[in-house]
């Protein structure tokens, strides 16, 4: 039982770290660091760097929330701790 709990939390933390890394890359990387490179492209009439800084990171965050919930349901079923 103790080993299962340890593996469950390791898998949970890997998922959290993955989501946080993606969120950081999109919000900080695309919204601040790569804004000049991304501004060479446009999306809906707006420069892509501006779009990522204003809207894109929010959309990615919402996607990550649903992705996390979906993957956690899978992990819960795998380790037998579903509701």
UniProtKB/TrEMBL annotation:
Top-rank taxon, per record: Bacteria
Record flagged with keyword Membrane: yes
Organism name: Leucothrix arctica
Bilayer-spanning residue ranges: 15-38, 50-70
PROSITE patterns hit by this protein: PROKAR_LIPOPROTEIN
Keywords: Membrane, Transmembrane, Transmembrane helix
InterPro entries: Na_symporter_ssu
Name of protein: DUF4212 domain-containing protein
Every Sodium symporter small subunit domain range: 6-82
